[in-house]
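Data deposition worksheet. Section B asks for the primary sequence of the deposited chain exactly as it was used as input, without tags or linkers unless they were present during the calculation. Section C holds the resulting structure in token form. Section D is free text for depositor observations; keep each observation to a single sentence. Incomplete worksheets are returned to the depositor.
Section A, Depositor: J.P.
Section B:
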Amino acid sequence: MYVSAKVDYAVRAMCALAAAGGRPLSADALARAQQLPAKYLEAILADLRRAGLVRSQRGAEGGYRLCRDPATITVADIMRLLDGPLAEVRGLRPEAADYDGPAAGLRDVWVAVRGALREVLEGVSVADIAGGHLPPAVTSRTGDPDAWRPRPAGGGRSG
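Section C:
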């Protein structure tokens, strides 16, 4: 799975806004706090504003705030907004992929991958991350030491 810089930066900014507790934060303050490129973050915040996840206020007391309770905004919401569907196969939704012969079961693999992504990404809210209280869908996986080990490319089950 590939997580774009755009999504990574957006989730980080959303978590910072959640931690601010409704106090507006400028794009520059968010960029400094999360060590993000300010101009790129401004473009991301504009996308989040157009989607109704944040609102902006001009002036000395201005900045960005969340439009919704951070407990209702999932990582999946942000990913879909910025990058589209969580899982695609050649530009198609996994259930639309069609295979014949020995590869016929591959569609089921792709659908299962999407299901696993949904379990984690739809189950984690911005409030969960900002509050440091990750749900079992995350903690059960990160508690396994094997989850932290990188695998070499082309290594089969051990890779």
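Section D:
The chain has seven helices and two strands.
The longest strand covers residues 54-57.
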